[in-house]
Amino acid sequence: MTVVVCALASLAMVCPENVENGESISKTGACRRACPVLHSTPFPPPSFVMQARIRIAVIALGATVLVLGSALGILAARFDPNAYKSAIIERVHEKTHRTLSIGGDIRLAVYPRLGVHLGKASLSELGGKGEFAALDSVRLSFALGPLLLRQEIVIDRIELRGMRATLVRQADGSMNIDDLTAARVKPNAGERAGAAGNAGAGPARIRFAVDSIRIDNAHLRFDDRKAGRLFDIARLNIDSGPIAHGVPSRVALSANIGVDKPALNTVLIFESGFSLDRDTRRVAMTELDANLDLSSRAGIESRAKLKGSIEIDFGTKAIAAALKGKIDDSAVSGKGALRDGMLQLDIDIDRLDMARYLPRAPSAPPASDAPPGTDAAPDQPVDLSALARLRASGTLQVGELTAGGLRASNVHAVLLADAGKTTIKPLSATLYGGNGNGALSLDFTGDASSPRMALVQDLRGISLGPLLLDATGKTPLAGRGDVQLDLTTRGASTMALREALGGTAALRLRDGVIGGIDLGRMVREAKAAAGVGSGADSTGFTELSATFRIDSGVAHNKDLSASTPLLRIGGEGQVDLAHETVDLRLRCTVVPSLTGQDGPAVGTLNGLTVPVALSGPLAQMTWQVDVAALGTEAAQKMRGALPSGGKEKLKDRVKDTLGGLFPR
Questions:
Q1: Residue 414: which of 476, 346, 474 has the closest Cα?
Q2: Which of 23, 30, 439, 589 is the most exposed place for a label (fewest CB within 10 A)?
Q3: What are residue 307's DSSP bridge partners?
């Protein structure tokens, strides 16, 4: 027993005889004399010394932790932070001129982490009127080591529950948090020197080295009165790992995000790795996995699942992203960036159906005062106001595109949108057996709810019949050839757009048909001077050309020209594109070479021009032959073949020629 005691005493360089009075003596000399047993034996081996020292260190550490834990327990039991409520409230009001209300208790916690718990609390708007933010509870946890060793309060975990806040941007651009985010006045050199001299005497410093953040069921609103929009972020949940410079971490987020103009709601769920670079003020998000469910009051629904990366530069206020995945039935990949409010996009989509992203409205019955036989499409609202504030540039590639019933492939578009104007130029595609190239523009500067639209398109070698069928559900004209369009319009509905249509159009077709009327049969049979066409009727042609001047939705023509095996057709008139009606005057000249091939009626009209008027709805045109004009022309042709003074004979000849064509 004496050996053990002396060995421990020698490790501590204290002789057992002098333990009580606390004297320290050398292991030689007096201690040898005081401990003859110890000093008469060999010195313990090094391993024994090391083990003994470790044991003593563990005992000392355990005792320290026990004492510290007891002290913290006593502090938590006896210290009442609620006594400082009024001081905290007064301090907040003094510094921010806002009112802080603390309805819950402030509690200190020791286990599992040293920290502070705060119950319900709220902060007013500037001046104390109205609520700016509130929360149900908050917990801040502190790292114990820095507090004991360096007098630093290191907040390493933040937990917020039921947080609510409203951000407001006024029409002049000011915000209701400007007073909270305003830059602090920098101290002068004398103040800095004084602060440095008193650094050791001041309160403990506070810094963030957040190990994790947890936000449950937060609700944030952004009332953007300058832009006239309201953004609502509800059911916001965030759970993150460490937030520290250069430390890889992860974050999970879910939220319901809504906007009122246009009325959209998105359910967002994503997880991502991230790292923070404090020196460059950048956050890099990698291995991002995001899911979005979008819906609107107009009946639009969409789902997206995207993966990729995002980098946020807080120094330059820029965001860059590279994403790919699925949006509904489309495979999408692209890169984007947001710098100085300008969005840069380069997107590649394998196939896209635009119809699913347009507002859905119930079909309206035809107007009660619509002319008989009209079959115009019902009026539908068109709201493009969401594009009015767009600032963007970029490219779009679509493998297969469907838009408004039209189908195209290999679509290439270059976008530029700024200052209320959006231009897509060039806009090229392969469609209906040919190619198209042109431009589309929207100008919101006059009226954001009814922008001015312009379309320029040069279509080469297309099949016009299938194009019109897909676009309108009807085929009033078919053939293969070229179409040039230079159109402008504006309006908030499909009918308003058609009624405001202006510009020019030209077409040159071959080997096609004119729907709704059979001019060849009318001339061949020559049984009536008037009639009504039908959807089953058509006039085949080998060539057709025409140019149009379009004003207020009505296309005016003066140079219609067409050729059929039986007729040479010329004409002029107008087509009401808005209401799908026609008013044309045609001159149908019978080809002489076909005399005798199509019956006696054609033989009698050999070389004569049959004047025909077409009018009414495109789906059921009425036609009328100008018999008087036909008789006059026949008389003029026959006058040269008769002897002088044969006026009465001429009348008889005309009657004989035309008598079998039309009823008396």
A1: 346
A2: 23
A3: 289, 324
